[in-house]
Structures are given as C-alpha cells and as structure tokens.
Design brief:
The chain has 373 residues and is of the alpha+beta class. It contains 12 helices and 14 strands. It folds into 2 domains: 144 residues, Aminopeptidase; 203 residues, Cysteine proteinases (Cathepsin B, Chain A), CATH 3.90.70. It is 34% helix and 25% strand. Helix 7 packs across helix 8.
C-alpha cells in the first residue's frame, strides 16, 4: 500500500531514476537533489509503494515571505491516473501552509494538458506566461493558488524584474525596475546599474562597499527625468550606527549632507516622518512606483539594508520585486532561471512587513516614491 513520507538521502538513486522516467528535458540533477534534501527551506515528499518511490514533490519556501513554489513534481508513468500527484500536492500544500505560506506558485509546460487540467481542478489559476521557457523551447504557464483562500487584487501594471549584478547594488537595480515600469523607453543596463550606485552610494557601510542612500536614489531618478519624493523617519546621517571607524562615519556624514543640499536645490520633497502601509499602498494605487528599504534579517539572518520595489498589495500582503538572486543558486542555467522567478512579486504578510521595514537600532524606515514627470 502506498504512503507519503518525507524524502531522505537514501532516496537519491530512486529520485534520479524517477526524474529520467518522468521528463525528457529540464531534469533535476543528482547534485540538485542532494542540495534540496539538505535544505531547511523546502517541503520534499515522496510517495512510496512497497519500497519503490513512484512519485515526489519539491516545494521551496521563500524565507521571510509567505510564498511557496512548487519547484518540481514527478510521477512514474506507470502510476499516473491513480491520484498520486493530487495527494502529493495536497500534502505539500499542507506542509507549506504549516510553515506560514500564503500562496503556492508553479510553472507548467503549456503543452502539458493533463497537468494543466489537474492544477486547475485543484484550484490553481493562470496569472502569467513565460515564452521559450523549457529546453525544448515550449512555453510555461505560471499558475498560482492561495492556500489560505485569499485572492490577490490585480492590476495591469507591468514592473520588470531586474537582478542586481553585485552584492551592493540592490538600490540601483530597484530604481531601474521602478523607472522602467513608469517609462518603458528607459533602458536599464549593468553599466547604468553601476552609474546609479556611484551617484547614490553612502561610500561606506559596516563592511564592504556602501549601499544606496534614499536621497541619493532620488537624485539619480531626478537626473533621469523622473519626479521623486523621499520619506525618512530619522534625521541625520543614515546607516552609521554599525560603523565603528570615526573617519568612515565622518565621510558618510559629508555624503549625507551633500545629498540633502542637492535635494533642496532641486526642490525634491523630503518628509521626515514614518511612512505607513496605507500611504505606501495609496501611492502605488495612484500609479507611483515605490522603493522601500527593508532589513534582510528575516530572510538571511543578516541585518543588512536592502532595497526592494513594491509590485502590488492586497488585504493580507504587500508584494515586492527583490533584485537579489544568489549567484550560482541553480545547478544549471535553466534551474537558475527558474529560481529567479522566486524573486518576483514576493508576498510579505503585512504584519511581517511592519518589522521588516525597520532597519537598525534607530529603527529607520525610509521609502522613495517615484512618478514620471
């Protein structure tokens, strides 16, 4: 009699065998299976019958968000039509829900009519399409299900997702997304990413290169023909509380003062106030694009400032484009491309966002509101 259990390292040979039976291309490698079996942020289940693994499901949990992604599902062809896939999906949804996920997302080949019928029967709806997605150049339907029965509100806005190409240019990448979303004629590029960082950087941080100052980002946007507005909850130099070197603090103070003076000359609105979720979503609803600084602690246990772009909202969540994609996260180019999708429209529960949008001991909250001139 078949039963579902957690996947273990001893299953690798059978998982590789099953992958070869189930897929002609876009197969997970043995190395990938090893990695996911050790990964704490996933739900990895197998269906076993008489010691034989005849199906598996791998769901990835995005740390710091309420989003789960059905990364891979395979069933032995000889066992299809027996409810194995539906059972695996139901139990994986339960595991993701228990871990705090609000949504489950997946990609499925547009020509896989049987799988599409199953997903629709189980409550998944299409919300996007990726052309030329798989190795055989077939398209992928993007499907989603709210596993807490919450339907996100939708709009017609298109905000492109752009990955940062260095560890310190999240602000530049976020600004390029926001500007391109407002003006499709604007052309982002890796060179532009570095140029914006040079214009907006604080020069120093606790360690490594400096990040982007909100007023510096606003100045960069204004120089490119956009109208920015800055909200910052604290006066004085930003990000200095973790910097011990007195000279670094002095330089960061000079940079801060320079940005403030330039903003005054350009009459860029600068509000010294704590911007709340209502104002953020109101700005987004009227057509502005919004950059928000968050702390990455809930995502990677590092207290680092990180810029993201608001890409939507509903009653339970705020959604964001996150420019950070871990280098080499996938074992193959196709797998890395799949994983980049996890950085788009990330749902963050409103109660989680309240703490995530505060940075440092001073509990800094800052945002840059952007509109087209």
């Amino acid at each position: 009699m078949s039963h579902v259990r957690k996947a273990v390292a001893a299953d690798i040979d059978q998982l590789v065998r099953l992958e070869a039976l189930a897929f002609k291309g876009d197969k997970l490698s043995r190395r990938s299976f090893r990695r996911w079996l050790k990964h704490p942020g996933c739900v990895f289940l197998v269906n076993e019958d008489g010691g034989v693994v005849n199906g598996y499901i791998l769901v990835i949990l995005r740390h710091g968000t309420r989003l789960a992604r059905l990364y891979s599902l395979a069933v032995d062809p000889s066992c299809r039509g027996k409810g194995v896939a539906a059972e695996l999906i139901a139990l994986a949804e339960q595991g993701a829900r228990d871990a705090g996920a609000l949504y489950m997302r997946l990609e499925v080949a547009g020509n896989n009519s049987a799988a599409i019928r199953l997903y629709r029967k189980l409550g998944y709806t299409q919300f996007g399409l990726y052309q030329d997605y798989y190795e055989d150049h077939s398209d992928a339907l993007r499907m989603e299900k709210c596993i807490h029965r919450l339907d996100p509100t939708s709009d017609n806005r298109v905000i492109p997702w752009i990955s940062q190409t260095t560890p310190f240019t999240c602000g530049s990448a976020a600004l390029m997304m926001a500007m391109n979303g407002l003006d499709p004629a604007y052309s982002p590029s890796p060179l532009e990413e570095v140029e914006i960082w040079r214009e907006a950087t604080t020069i120093f941080m606790t360690s490594g290169h400096g990040g982007s100052h909100p007023v510096g980002l606003a100045l960069a946007a204004a120089a490119r023909g956009f109208t920015p507005e800055v909200w910052v909850s604290k006066k004085g130099p930003l990000f200095v509380e973790g910097v011990r070197d007195a000279n670094k603090k002095r330089v960061m103070g000079l940079v801060h003062e320079s940005f403030i003076e330039q903003a005054k000359k350009l009459k860029i609105p600068l509000h010294y106030a704590d911007i709340d979720q209502r104002r953020l979503t109101d700005c987004y609803a009227r057509g502005d694009n919004v950059l928000i600084l968050i702390s990455t602690y809930r995502m990677d246990n590092r207290k680092a400032p990180h810029w993201v772009v608001l890409s939507g909202f509903d009653e339970r969540c705020l959604f964001f484009h996150d420019p950070y994609l871990e280098a080499g996260s996938g074992s193959t180019i196709a797998e890395e491309y799949r994983e980049s999708i996890e950085c788009q429209h990330l749902p963050i529960a409103r109660e989680d966002f309240t703490s995530m949008s505060l940075f440092g001991a001073r509990r800094l909250r800052t945002a840059v509101i952007l509109r087209k001139c």
